[in-house]
Amino acid sequence: MSRMIELKKVSKVYQQKKRRIEAVKEVSLKIEKGEIFGVVGYSGAGKSTLIRMINYLEPPTTGEILINGQNLKGLNKKELLLTRRKIGMIFQGYNLLSTATVYENIAKPLKLEGVSKDVIKERVAKYLALVGLTDRKDNYPAQLSGGQRQRVAIARALAHEPEILLSDEATSALDPETTESILTLLAKINQELGITIFLITHEIDVVQRICDRVAVMEDGHIVEAGPVIEIFTQPKEETTKRFIGANDSYGVPEEVLSSYRNTGRLVQLQFIGEEATEPVLSKVAKEFPLSPNILSGTIGYLKEQRHGQLLVQFSGGSPEDFAAAKEYIKSQGILIEEI
What we know:
By secondary structure, the protein is an alpha/beta fold.
Protein backbone atom coordinates (compact mmCIF):
# COMPACT_ATOMS: atom_id res chain seq x y z
CA MET A 1 0.00 0.00 0.00
CA SER A 2 1.10 3.58 -0.68
CA ARG A 3 0.44 6.37 1.77
CA MET A 4 -2.51 8.58 0.83
CA ILE A 5 -2.73 10.95 3.84
CA GLU A 6 -0.03 11.85 6.32
CA LEU A 7 -0.33 14.28 9.22
CA LYS A 8 2.94 15.35 10.80
CA LYS A 9 2.57 16.92 14.24
CA VAL A 10 -0.33 19.12 13.15
CA SER A 11 -1.79 21.59 15.64
CA LYS A 12 -4.55 24.15 15.38
CA VAL A 13 -4.79 27.14 17.70
CA TYR A 14 -7.60 29.71 17.73
CA GLN A 15 -7.24 33.09 19.34
CA GLN A 16 -10.50 34.51 20.73
CA LYS A 17 -9.76 37.91 22.24
CA LYS A 18 -7.56 37.05 25.20
CA ARG A 19 -8.41 33.37 25.10
CA ARG A 20 -6.14 30.86 23.35
CA ILE A 21 -7.88 27.63 22.28
CA GLU A 22 -5.80 24.60 21.28
CA ALA A 23 -8.26 22.52 19.22
CA VAL A 24 -5.73 20.01 17.86
CA LYS A 25 -2.40 19.25 19.52
CA GLU A 26 0.51 17.71 17.60
CA VAL A 27 -1.44 14.96 15.86
CA SER A 28 0.49 12.55 13.65
CA LEU A 29 -1.33 9.95 11.53
CA LYS A 30 -0.62 7.86 8.44
CA ILE A 31 -3.53 6.64 6.29
CA GLU A 32 -2.82 4.16 3.53
CA LYS A 33 -4.34 4.22 0.05
CA GLY A 34 -7.62 2.31 -0.11
CA GLU A 35 -8.29 1.96 3.62
CA ILE A 36 -11.16 3.24 5.73
CA PHE A 37 -9.77 5.12 8.71
CA GLY A 38 -11.93 6.41 11.54
CA VAL A 39 -11.38 8.96 14.29
CA VAL A 40 -13.69 8.70 17.29
CA GLY A 41 -14.11 10.86 20.33
CA TYR A 42 -16.58 12.79 22.41
CA SER A 43 -17.86 16.25 21.43
CA GLY A 44 -15.13 18.85 21.72
CA ALA A 45 -12.31 16.35 21.19
CA GLY A 46 -11.09 18.20 18.08
CA LYS A 47 -12.37 15.76 15.42
CA SER A 48 -14.10 18.29 13.16
CA THR A 49 -11.12 20.63 13.19
CA LEU A 50 -8.83 17.73 12.36
CA ILE A 51 -10.82 16.57 9.32
CA ARG A 52 -11.12 20.14 7.99
CA MET A 53 -7.34 20.49 8.11
CA ILE A 54 -6.89 17.56 5.72
CA ASN A 55 -8.25 19.56 2.78
CA TYR A 56 -6.98 22.86 4.18
CA LEU A 57 -10.41 24.29 4.92
CA GLU A 58 -8.62 24.90 8.23
CA PRO A 59 -4.88 25.33 7.60
CA PRO A 60 -2.88 23.97 10.55
CA THR A 61 -1.17 26.46 12.84
CA THR A 62 1.89 24.21 12.91
CA GLY A 63 2.79 20.88 11.34
CA GLU A 64 2.48 19.43 7.85
CA ILE A 65 -0.20 17.65 5.84
CA LEU A 66 0.76 15.48 2.88
CA ILE A 67 -1.77 14.20 0.33
CA ASN A 68 -0.40 11.38 -1.81
CA GLY A 69 3.08 12.57 -0.93
CA GLN A 70 2.43 16.24 -1.74
CA ASN A 71 2.89 18.75 1.08
CA LEU A 72 -0.04 21.19 1.12
CA LYS A 73 2.01 23.79 2.94
CA GLY A 74 3.21 26.42 0.51
CA LEU A 75 0.86 25.53 -2.37
CA ASN A 76 -0.55 28.55 -4.19
CA LYS A 77 -4.33 28.99 -4.59
CA LYS A 78 -4.48 27.25 -7.98
CA GLU A 79 -2.40 24.27 -6.81
CA LEU A 80 -4.47 23.95 -3.64
CA LEU A 81 -7.70 24.05 -5.65
CA LEU A 82 -6.46 21.24 -7.91
CA THR A 83 -5.48 19.16 -4.87
CA ARG A 84 -8.87 19.74 -3.22
CA ARG A 85 -10.60 18.34 -6.30
CA LYS A 86 -9.03 15.00 -5.37
CA ILE A 87 -10.70 15.20 -1.94
CA GLY A 88 -14.48 14.82 -1.67
CA MET A 89 -16.33 15.64 1.53
CA ILE A 90 -19.73 14.76 3.01
CA PHE A 91 -21.32 16.37 6.05
CA GLN A 92 -23.93 15.67 8.70
CA GLY A 93 -26.12 18.46 7.29
CA TYR A 94 -25.87 17.34 3.63
CA ASN A 95 -25.24 20.95 2.37
CA LEU A 96 -27.60 20.59 -0.61
CA LEU A 97 -29.11 23.50 -2.53
CA SER A 98 -32.79 23.50 -1.60
CA THR A 99 -33.87 25.24 -4.84
CA ALA A 100 -31.97 22.81 -7.10
CA THR A 101 -33.00 19.34 -8.18
CA VAL A 102 -30.97 16.25 -7.34
CA TYR A 103 -29.46 16.36 -10.82
CA GLU A 104 -28.60 20.05 -10.50
CA ASN A 105 -27.04 19.61 -7.04
CA ILE A 106 -24.55 17.17 -8.54
CA ALA A 107 -24.07 18.94 -11.86
CA LYS A 108 -23.56 22.56 -10.72
CA PRO A 109 -20.18 22.09 -8.97
CA LEU A 110 -18.91 20.23 -12.06
CA LYS A 111 -20.10 23.06 -14.31
CA LEU A 112 -18.23 25.58 -12.14
CA GLU A 113 -15.08 23.51 -12.67
CA GLY A 114 -15.50 23.77 -16.43
CA VAL A 115 -16.44 20.13 -17.03
CA SER A 116 -18.21 19.63 -20.38
CA LYS A 117 -21.97 19.02 -20.55
CA ASP A 118 -21.54 15.51 -21.93
CA VAL A 119 -19.14 14.51 -19.14
CA ILE A 120 -21.44 16.07 -16.54
CA LYS A 121 -24.40 14.12 -17.86
CA GLU A 122 -22.37 10.90 -17.86
CA ARG A 123 -21.03 11.39 -14.32
CA VAL A 124 -24.36 12.39 -12.79
CA ALA A 125 -26.00 9.30 -14.28
CA LYS A 126 -23.11 7.06 -13.15
CA TYR A 127 -23.05 8.19 -9.54
CA LEU A 128 -26.81 8.46 -9.09
CA ALA A 129 -26.94 4.83 -10.20
CA LEU A 130 -24.19 3.94 -7.72
CA VAL A 131 -26.10 5.48 -4.80
CA GLY A 132 -29.43 4.07 -5.98
CA LEU A 133 -31.22 7.33 -6.81
CA THR A 134 -31.53 7.32 -10.61
CA ASP A 135 -35.31 7.68 -10.35
CA ARG A 136 -35.00 10.72 -8.07
CA LYS A 137 -32.91 12.97 -10.31
CA ASP A 138 -35.74 15.48 -10.84
CA ASN A 139 -36.77 15.67 -7.18
CA TYR A 140 -35.85 18.49 -4.81
CA PRO A 141 -34.12 17.89 -1.45
CA ALA A 142 -37.34 18.62 0.46
CA GLN A 143 -38.95 15.66 -1.31
CA LEU A 144 -36.28 13.25 -0.06
CA SER A 145 -35.68 11.43 3.21
CA GLY A 146 -32.57 12.14 5.28
CA GLY A 147 -30.88 9.03 3.98
CA GLN A 148 -31.67 9.94 0.37
CA ARG A 149 -30.27 13.45 0.87
CA GLN A 150 -27.06 11.97 2.20
CA ARG A 151 -26.88 9.71 -0.86
CA VAL A 152 -27.19 12.79 -3.09
CA ALA A 153 -24.36 14.42 -1.12
CA ILE A 154 -22.24 11.29 -1.61
CA ALA A 155 -22.98 11.23 -5.35
CA ARG A 156 -22.04 14.93 -5.57
CA ALA A 157 -18.71 14.25 -3.85
CA LEU A 158 -17.99 11.24 -6.07
CA ALA A 159 -18.83 13.11 -9.28
CA HIS A 160 -15.49 14.91 -8.96
CA GLU A 161 -13.90 11.44 -9.00
CA PRO A 162 -11.74 12.03 -5.91
CA GLU A 163 -9.05 9.80 -4.47
CA ILE A 164 -10.12 10.60 -0.90
CA LEU A 165 -13.56 10.91 0.69
CA LEU A 166 -13.83 12.78 3.98
CA SER A 167 -16.90 12.02 6.10
CA ASP A 168 -17.75 14.51 8.86
CA GLU A 169 -20.32 12.80 11.13
CA ALA A 170 -22.22 11.82 7.96
CA THR A 171 -24.60 9.41 9.74
CA SER A 172 -25.14 11.29 13.00
CA ALA A 173 -28.56 12.67 12.01
CA LEU A 174 -29.86 9.36 10.63
CA ASP A 175 -31.89 6.58 12.22
CA PRO A 176 -30.18 3.18 12.76
CA GLU A 177 -31.63 1.50 9.67
CA THR A 178 -30.67 4.41 7.39
CA THR A 179 -27.24 4.60 9.02
CA GLU A 180 -26.67 0.94 8.17
CA SER A 181 -27.62 1.54 4.52
CA ILE A 182 -25.23 4.52 4.26
CA LEU A 183 -22.40 2.53 5.84
CA THR A 184 -23.02 -0.31 3.41
CA LEU A 185 -22.83 2.22 0.57
CA LEU A 186 -19.55 3.70 1.86
CA ALA A 187 -18.04 0.21 2.13
CA LYS A 188 -19.16 -0.50 -1.44
CA ILE A 189 -17.58 2.75 -2.67
CA ASN A 190 -14.33 1.86 -0.93
CA GLN A 191 -14.26 -1.64 -2.39
CA GLU A 192 -15.42 -0.89 -5.93
CA LEU A 193 -13.74 2.48 -6.52
CA GLY A 194 -10.70 2.06 -4.27
CA ILE A 195 -11.31 5.44 -2.65
CA THR A 196 -9.58 6.11 0.67
CA ILE A 197 -12.16 7.10 3.30
CA PHE A 198 -11.31 9.19 6.35
CA LEU A 199 -14.24 9.61 8.72
CA ILE A 200 -14.90 11.18 12.08
CA THR A 201 -17.72 10.09 14.35
CA HIS A 202 -18.86 9.81 17.94
CA GLU A 203 -20.79 6.64 17.05
CA ILE A 204 -18.74 3.61 17.95
CA ASP A 205 -20.97 1.36 15.81
CA VAL A 206 -19.81 3.20 12.68
CA VAL A 207 -16.19 2.30 13.39
CA GLN A 208 -17.07 -1.31 14.19
CA ARG A 209 -19.03 -1.65 10.98
CA ILE A 210 -16.66 -0.39 8.28
CA CYS A 211 -13.28 0.87 9.53
CA ASP A 212 -9.95 -0.89 9.05
CA ARG A 213 -8.13 1.25 11.60
CA VAL A 214 -9.20 3.77 14.20
CA ALA A 215 -7.75 6.57 16.31
CA VAL A 216 -9.29 7.71 19.58
CA MET A 217 -9.17 11.45 20.18
CA GLU A 218 -9.50 13.41 23.41
CA ASP A 219 -8.78 17.06 24.21
CA GLY A 220 -7.05 17.59 20.85
CA HIS A 221 -4.73 14.59 21.22
CA ILE A 222 -4.72 11.12 19.67
CA VAL A 223 -4.61 8.93 22.77
CA GLU A 224 -4.56 5.55 21.00
CA ALA A 225 -4.59 4.27 17.42
CA GLY A 226 -4.42 0.91 15.67
CA PRO A 227 -6.38 -1.80 13.84
CA VAL A 228 -10.05 -1.86 14.86
CA ILE A 229 -9.82 -5.44 16.12
CA GLU A 230 -6.84 -4.60 18.33
CA ILE A 231 -8.38 -1.42 19.76
CA PHE A 232 -11.70 -3.10 20.55
CA THR A 233 -10.30 -6.28 22.04
CA GLN A 234 -7.20 -4.97 23.81
CA PRO A 235 -7.59 -1.24 24.51
CA LYS A 236 -4.74 0.25 26.52
CA GLU A 237 -5.88 3.75 27.46
CA GLU A 238 -8.68 4.53 29.91
CA THR A 239 -10.28 6.95 27.44
CA THR A 240 -10.48 4.18 24.85
CA LYS A 241 -11.88 1.68 27.34
CA ARG A 242 -14.52 4.17 28.41
CA PHE A 243 -15.48 5.07 24.86
CA ILE A 244 -15.86 1.52 23.58
CA GLY A 245 -17.50 0.29 26.78
CA ALA A 246 -14.70 -2.11 27.67
CA ASN A 247 -15.53 -1.73 31.36
CA ASP A 248 -19.24 -2.37 30.87
CA SER A 249 -20.78 -5.24 32.80
CA TYR A 250 -23.13 -6.32 29.99
CA GLY A 251 -26.15 -4.93 31.82
CA VAL A 252 -25.58 -7.04 34.94
CA PRO A 253 -26.21 -4.91 38.07
CA GLU A 254 -23.14 -4.27 40.22
CA GLU A 255 -24.72 -5.83 43.30
CA VAL A 256 -25.27 -9.04 41.33
CA LEU A 257 -21.67 -8.99 40.13
CA SER A 258 -20.48 -8.53 43.70
CA SER A 259 -22.32 -11.65 44.80
CA TYR A 260 -20.68 -13.64 41.99
CA ARG A 261 -17.26 -12.27 42.91
CA ASN A 262 -17.81 -13.50 46.46
CA THR A 263 -18.32 -17.06 45.23
CA GLY A 264 -15.85 -17.26 42.36
CA ARG A 265 -13.85 -15.36 39.76
CA LEU A 266 -15.35 -13.13 37.07
CA VAL A 267 -13.70 -13.03 33.66
CA GLN A 268 -14.37 -11.54 30.27
CA LEU A 269 -13.79 -13.83 27.30
CA GLN A 270 -13.38 -12.49 23.78
CA PHE A 271 -13.00 -14.32 20.51
CA ILE A 272 -12.43 -13.19 16.94
CA GLY A 273 -13.53 -15.09 13.87
CA GLU A 274 -14.96 -18.56 14.10
CA GLU A 275 -13.53 -19.59 17.45
CA ALA A 276 -16.38 -20.68 19.70
CA THR A 277 -16.30 -20.33 23.45
CA GLU A 278 -18.93 -22.87 24.48
CA PRO A 279 -16.95 -26.01 23.47
CA VAL A 280 -13.93 -24.50 25.23
CA LEU A 281 -15.93 -23.90 28.41
CA SER A 282 -17.27 -27.45 28.22
CA LYS A 283 -13.71 -28.71 27.96
CA VAL A 284 -12.68 -26.57 30.94
CA ALA A 285 -15.49 -28.07 33.00
CA LYS A 286 -14.32 -31.59 32.10
CA GLU A 287 -10.58 -31.10 32.43
CA PHE A 288 -10.43 -28.82 35.50
CA PRO A 289 -12.28 -28.82 38.83
CA LEU A 290 -14.02 -25.57 37.85
CA SER A 291 -17.63 -24.72 37.07
CA PRO A 292 -18.09 -22.04 34.37
CA ASN A 293 -21.30 -20.01 34.59
CA ILE A 294 -22.14 -17.71 31.66
CA LEU A 295 -23.73 -14.54 33.05
CA SER A 296 -24.08 -12.47 29.87
CA GLY A 297 -22.64 -11.98 26.42
CA THR A 298 -22.81 -10.41 22.99
CA ILE A 299 -21.85 -11.39 19.45
CA GLY A 300 -21.21 -8.74 16.81
CA TYR A 301 -18.84 -7.90 13.97
CA LEU A 302 -15.74 -5.75 13.65
CA LYS A 303 -15.96 -4.86 9.97
CA GLU A 304 -16.42 -8.37 8.53
CA GLN A 305 -14.96 -10.39 11.38
CA ARG A 306 -17.12 -12.02 14.02
CA HIS A 307 -16.44 -10.74 17.54
CA GLY A 308 -17.90 -12.40 20.64
CA GLN A 309 -17.75 -11.39 24.30
CA LEU A 310 -18.86 -13.35 27.33
CA LEU A 311 -19.01 -12.52 31.03
CA VAL A 312 -18.29 -15.76 32.89
CA GLN A 313 -17.99 -16.77 36.53
CA PHE A 314 -15.63 -19.63 37.42
CA SER A 315 -16.32 -21.26 40.77
CA GLY A 316 -14.56 -24.10 42.59
CA GLY A 317 -10.98 -25.29 42.25
CA SER A 318 -7.75 -23.80 43.54
CA PRO A 319 -5.86 -20.72 42.28
CA GLU A 320 -3.54 -23.14 40.46
CA ASP A 321 -6.51 -24.79 38.73
CA PHE A 322 -7.82 -21.41 37.63
CA ALA A 323 -4.39 -20.35 36.34
CA ALA A 324 -4.08 -23.58 34.34
CA ALA A 325 -7.58 -23.13 32.90
CA LYS A 326 -6.71 -19.58 31.86
CA GLU A 327 -3.66 -20.80 29.99
CA TYR A 328 -5.75 -23.46 28.24
CA ILE A 329 -8.35 -20.86 27.17
CA LYS A 330 -5.60 -18.58 25.82
CA SER A 331 -4.14 -21.50 23.87
CA GLN A 332 -7.47 -21.80 22.05
CA GLY A 333 -7.15 -18.27 20.66
CA ILE A 334 -9.55 -16.70 23.14
CA LEU A 335 -8.70 -13.55 25.07
CA ILE A 336 -9.38 -13.78 28.80
CA GLU A 337 -9.27 -10.99 31.35
CA GLU A 338 -10.22 -11.12 35.01
CA ILE A 339 -12.54 -8.27 36.00
